[in-house]
UniProtKB/TrEMBL annotation:
Protein name (database record): MOSC domain-containing protein
Gene3D superfamilies, A to Z: PK beta-barrel domain-like
GO molecular function list: catalytic activity; molybdenum ion binding; pyridoxal phosphate binding
TM region positions: none
Domain MOSC residue range list: 116-259
Species this chain originates from: Crenobacter cavernae
Record InterPro entries: MoCF_Sase_C, MOCOS_middle, MOSC_domain, Pyrv_Knase-like_insert_dom_sf
Length: 265
């Protein structure tokens, strides 16, 4: 079994950047979900309510980032401009991040059509992981999301119009032998890094957003089919959430080894 695709989403809900390798640590892949859009009150904004965010492309750098979107001139920001503490809320987590670039706020407000502010997570996150030690980025709840291409293939066999790995916004895509075998994993090693599989990843309306068009599919797929085929105690699930147990580099083509399963056979 191999790692076949690797992604970071530098802005929460932006287009995923396909990588050949990435530094992995307890907080997540380097540059993953380190930027966040919020309302003036600090409530997070994602593709669930603003589907056009999936068409924003982010080029992260050591001192800032460059944002592009259809019909807009590029926006460049520097970390040094983000020096004002600002409350941020991601689901039930309330924590502090950094704000400070009025031009960035105006750029995204114009693009989305409603007031918003751009926040930077900072070199150190003020948000703690669920049920574990360490920092967390602006991700929904866990630092890593893995999906299995065999499971995607089985899902697509049920759909009139197939979906891609990009619909599920994973960090790691693996080519396993069997569909849904990721449900049974407890610990996996990808190249240099070992991961604990924490929970199945519950899905929402965001998976119905076409990553190329930035709009929801009229047929409600793949959620309609997942509701019928993947209703688990944790929700309507596809993929698994994980946390890293050590730091290292992961690379496309790395061997993926199941270190421990949840069930003994």
């Amino acid at each position: 079994m191999r790692l076949s695709e690797l992604y970071v989403h530098p802005l929460k809900s932006s287009r995923g950047n396909a990588l050949e390798s990435a530094a992995a640590g307890p907080r997540g892949l380097e540059h993953d979900r380190e930027w966040l859009l919020v309302s003036p009150a600090g409530h997070f904004i994602t593709g669930r309510t603003a589907p056009s965010l999936v068409r924003v492309v982010v080029e992260p750098g050591p001192s800032g980032a460059r944002f592009t979107a259809p019909g807009r001139e590029a926006l460049a920001v520097e970390h040094a401009s983000f020096k004002t503490p600002h409350d941020a809320t991601v689901w039930k987590d309330l924590f502090s991040a950094w704000h400070g670039d009025a031009a960035a706020d105006a750029w995204f407000t114009d693009y989305l059509g409603h007031p918003c502010r751009l926040l930077w997570l900072g070199k150190e996150s003020q948000r703690a992981q669920k049920g574990g030690d360490g920092e967390l980025s602006f991700a929904d709840g866990y630092p890593y999301l893995l999906i299995n291409r065999a499971s995607l293939n089985e899902l697509n066999a049920e759909l009139a119009e197939p979906v891609t790995t990009r619909h599920f916004r994973a960090n790691l895509v693996v080519d396993a032998d069997f569909a849904w075998e990721e449900d049974e994993w407890k610990r996996v090693r990808v190249g240099e890094v070992e991961f604990e599989v924490t929970t199945p990843c519950s899905r929402c309306i965001f998976s119905t957003v076409d990553p190329e068009l930035g709009a929801r599919r009229a047929d409600g797929e793949p959620m309609r089919t997942l509701l019928r085929t993947r209703a688990l105690p944790e929700g309507i699930c596809f993929g698994v959430n994980m946390r890293a147990l050590n730091s290292g580099v992961v690379r496309v083509g790395d061997s993926v080894e199941v270190v421990e399963s949840r069930f003994e056979f």
